[in-house]
Protein 1
Amino acid sequence: MFSEKRSKGIKNPNIKCQGLLLPIAAPSGTGKTTVCRKLLEYSDSFAFSVSCTTRSPRPSEKSGFDYHFVSKETFEEYIKNNMFAEWEEVFKNHYGTLRSAVEEALESCKILLLDIDVKGALSIKKLYPEDTLSIFLLSPNDEELERRLHFRGTDDKKSIALRNARIPDEVKLGEHFDHIIVNDKLGRTVEEIINIIKRR
Ligand code: ADP
Ligand code: 5GP
């Protein structure tokens, strides 16, 4: 599975294949993180881009696995040192994709999953157009999205309101993605993403 060496987009003549960047964006609560975890279980060809964030960890989150949790000062230092491929302020916190994670994945022929906001995903596409396949997830309907956010149980009312306020702008930008998938049945979504990658 996914073992064929890709020849397109090779930048370094010494390496025989090139990885793929797969930013997955969606309104909060749609299922980005869940879908990424399922894809990681599916094949070793996938790797996860561990972003840096100034947000505090949730009880279940591990530093270096879910995120690199850093202070605002450290994040600013990273911006100054040009360490981010992209970064954004989302829900009043900063989130950034490490350039090193992207370049390592491309050179080691991995499919890098980026659980990332809509603007960040489009920045990755702009920066690495040949190497990026952008996926936008939608929930089947508004009630289901609301149910998933509540069911996840990680956000208070204020945080849910902040997340909901962004949805119209996020959905508008969704049309610029390579593929839009309705995340209804989880298994079906994962299968669809795998088929998209195989077709490429
Ligand atoms: P996001 O990363 O987009 O904010 P999560 O992956 O945290 O969203 O998912 C939010 C909640 O919805 C979680 O409780 C998750 O288990 C659930 N969920 C994700 N995908 C599905 C799906 N296809 N069907 C039902 N529940 C789902
Ligand atoms: P959360 O706080 O729920 O983990 O994430 C909030 C939002 O930030 C989500 O939409 C998530 O995908 C996005 N995000 C996480 N990491 C990054 C990143 O490195 N860059 C950008 N632009 N967004 C990110």
Protein 2
Amino acid sequence: MTIAFRHSSARQAPRPSTRASALKSALVSPDLTFLMEAHNGLSARIVEEAGFRGVWASGLSISAALGVRDNNEASWTQVLEVLEFMADATTIPILVDGDTGYGNFNNVRRLVRKLCDRGIAGVCIEDKLFPKTNSFVGDGQPLADMDEFCGKIKAGKDSQTDPDFCLVARIEALISGWGLDEALRRAEAYHQAGADAILIHSKKSSADEILAFCQEWANRCPVVIVPTMYYATPTERYRAAGISCVIWANHNVRAAISAMREVSRKIATSETLVGVEGTIASVKDVFALQGNSELVEAERRYLPQPGIDTQAIVLAASRGAALGELTADRPKCMIDVRGQPLLRQLTTTLKDSGIRRIGVVVGYRKESVDLPSIETVPNQAYATTGECASLVCAEDRLDGPCLVTYGDILFRRYILDRLLEADGDIVVVADALWRERRRTGPGLVHDHVECSRPFSPGYLDEDTVDLVRVGPDLPDRDIAGEWVGLVRLSARGAERVREELAAMRRDGSLDRANMPDLLNRLVAGGHQVRVQYITGHWLDVDDSFDLAKARNFL
Ligand code: SPV
Ligand code: MG
């Protein structure tokens, strides 16, 4: 049979812009369209992934997936919930199996409005009685009164809020044994009532009665079929018959049942996962279907990423002689703290706060500083120079927001997050609980700070504190805290620091200067150096006592 014409709108149809218009175009198009069954968000996504143009939200499959019978045991609002997940998981049109419409014309009106609200492209309602029974269960199921069913179709069409929403009228006359004439009579009535397409259903194992129907019907409106029982029929015959749409109605839920049974049985009998791991979808695959990568992207866009533009310079050139043998073959930044080099623990915290570029100034045993995703910058003269000379080695990195940190410290991440968000071009972190940390011994230095205001537990975050001076020999009465070895520089702050380093180079003080000398010069030069107080939650590693503390800290 040749079908020269289906619907005049097919040729001039504008590009579908909604899912409903896409379904409508597919129904009226002269091409055969296939809808594939899905019963939840995941299966709907898989249907789209496979390349189908639309989803059949099967009543049988949704009920089965919910663990109930296909007898309207799931309420229509429960089905609606499932549909919402399916719509969210896909971009292609969904034609939902609306059974008998869940009641009379009034229920159909409400159903159609709610489906339109949720972006469902169309509904198929069948001319049986509520509560329905699946077409393949038993014989001679009673049919709905034809005129009453036409009223439902009209009510549905009058209620759609999307102009392209499709209502497919399903004829059960062949299923119930009423024969071809009754099927054709009903098809005409439903077409006249405004159905966008008719679905002619059959439970025979041959497609003969369906093809006979199509011959008589001659495409007065698009025809949809469900070849579950006459599955052996070549698809070409449907094309030749001018059928608009084939629904593969339940094959995903059945595939899932077989796969789940097999894997459950295997695991139950073998008491191990060894035999199944390679045969099932990977966890990565699950994540991909859930769209995890989109969330990662969105997190980058919407979550605060305080350190995202900031790079770090880690000063880690010195040996750490007070650690004795432990630093014989490596600098102290590489000594092991609970299975990881100290520097690795530090860089993990930096990365967790969004700092991606990390330059480490190395000197003593520099070849042993071989961590992934850091860049090393050598200070060849590490043995005879101080911290500022090391900083100069990484000077080209002072070209934007920057964090300068000692390589032998550990701190809780919130300290860094707060520092990265702090106002000010040059901000240092000082521990107000300096007295509790005070210890004397070889190689132990505490750089204390004098500030414009002491720490008070009740102070407001907006109140700013400025550095007055920093160094190891402040009188107790002036000490407000201990500098932890962290400075955050804005782009302007980094520029100030570069200028100051250049001045130190000129006046010959650079090589011997340490970071506190630099900070004091900045303050003396009238630059504001802000202080952010903390109360503990950090440590530096100078000797084996500190090392023991570091192990407990992690
Ligand atoms: C469904 O998939 O729920 C259908 C098609 O209605 S059938 O099961 O063949 O009736
Ligand atoms: Mg059904």
